[in-house]
């Protein structure tokens, strides 16, 4: 599961953000203090950091500076006061990937998190593989046994989600959230329909139904 580190000393904000991200299928770790935030960011157990600037101990800029000084490429999104534009520019110069002015709406934050994670994933892993199936994340092309397979954008996104989590059971709610960006079940069987499309195109045995739980990619 993708892990988001939240370094924020205002409990009201960290609580609201953490709750929302968990509902969207991420795991979260909340830290309220700069030094501990840096230690967590360097631990290698997180995929992205939401970093407040005004923190007890070392501030967000210093956390970012030390993180980049250690050659960490962990994506960092700064949470910054809407008035502190100069600070924000300094943050981007200092190696932040993005910033979100406070106050923000949760869906705005979630969209930023998703796109920064997507970029980071593309840099780190241009192709995903499971057995004879491969997805090229740059060209958006799928191949089975070396032969090209035509996938729609949504089919590709769903296949990508499975390949990022091989052998892991993904619930319909997780897939709706990560692939369709829906944090609720619209009461449709859209996930089941698209899994069927993928089975038709990629091979019937590749995606297994785990009764009452969801779906799993056989690696
Ligand atoms: Ca603060």
Brief sketch in words of this structure:
The chain has 8 helices and 12 strands. It is of the alpha/beta class and 219 residues long. Strand 6 and strand 7 form a beta hairpin.
Biggest sheet, strands in spatial order? 2-1-3-4-5
CATH superfamily of the largest domain: Response regulator
Tell me the major beta sheet.
5 strands, parallel
- Taken from the alpha-carbon principal axes, the silhouette is elongated
- Average pLDDT, all residues: 89
Tell me the number of strands.
12
Helix content: 40-55%
Question: What is the structural class?
Answer: alpha/beta
What is the alpha-carbon Rg in Å? 19 Å
Number of separate domains: 2
Low-confidence stretches: none
CATH topology of the largest domain: Rossmann fold
Proportion in β-strands: 15-25%
What string, H for helix and E for strand, traces the elements in order?
A: EHEHEHEHEHEEEEHEHHEE
Name the ligand types. Answer: calcium ion
Task: Describe this entry's structure for a reader.
With 219 residues, the chain is an alpha/beta fold. It has 2 domains: 3-119, Rossmann fold (3-Layer(aba) Sandwich), CATH 3.40.50; 127-217, Arc Repressor Mutant, subunit A. Helices cover 42% and strands 23% of the residues. It has 8 helices and 12 strands. The protein has helices spanning 11-23, 34-41, 60-69, 85-93, 106-124, 153-164, 172-180, 190-202, and strands at residues 3-7, 27-31, 48-52, 76-81, 98-102, 127-130, 133-136, 141-144, 147-149, 169-170, 207-210, 214-217. The strands form 3 sheets. Strands 2-1-3-4-5 form a 5-stranded parallel sheet, with helices on both faces. It has a 4-stranded antiparallel sheet with strand order 6-7-8-9, covered by helices on one side. Strand 4 (76-81), helix 4 (85-93) and strand 5 (98-102) form a beta-alpha-beta unit. Helix 2 (34-41) runs parallel beside helix 3 (60-69), helix 6 crosses helix 7 and helix 6 (153-164) crosses helix 8 (190-202). The model has no long low-confidence stretch (mean pLDDT 89). It binds calcium ion (CA). Calcium ion binds next to loops.
